[in-house]
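Sample entry (167 residues):
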Amino acid sequence: MIVSFLRRLFFFALLLLVQAFILNQVNILGYATPMLFVFFLLMFSRGSSRLSLLFWGFVMGFLMDLFTNTPGVGAASCTLLGMIQPVLLNLFVPRESPDDLEPSIKQQGWAKFSGYLLLSTFLFYISYYLLLAFSLAHLEDLVINVVGGTLFTFVLMLGLNSLYIRS
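Predicted structure, serialized as tokens:
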């Protein structure tokens, strides 16, 4: 259990540092910015407690807010993602699957895992950019940001999934 927690903590710190110092500097055409740190929340197992998801989501979002100067936007969006992650995961796994099932291509198959990542990332980006803009005045920019960021992050998450080491 301690090894699992330390591994999760290391993965948390690694994603946080990569996001803060590398990925926040990447911005394709002024619209698509990858937010790979949400992958951390999406990799929690099916039986994870909602309280731990909310805690980790809030902490990750709060720390990202500190690095990006977006007070509360990341914390709110990550907390929302932590709240809906079990529901989204249950949409893409069979009912009879074990509680310790961790989402991956190997466990779910390519189509279901991709659907899970895309839907989760899309919902995160919608909440993030709606809170950031707090307006629908520039709807075209909002849509481009959400779609571009979702696709860019999705591709990075698929690549990271092949490297992610299970406990």
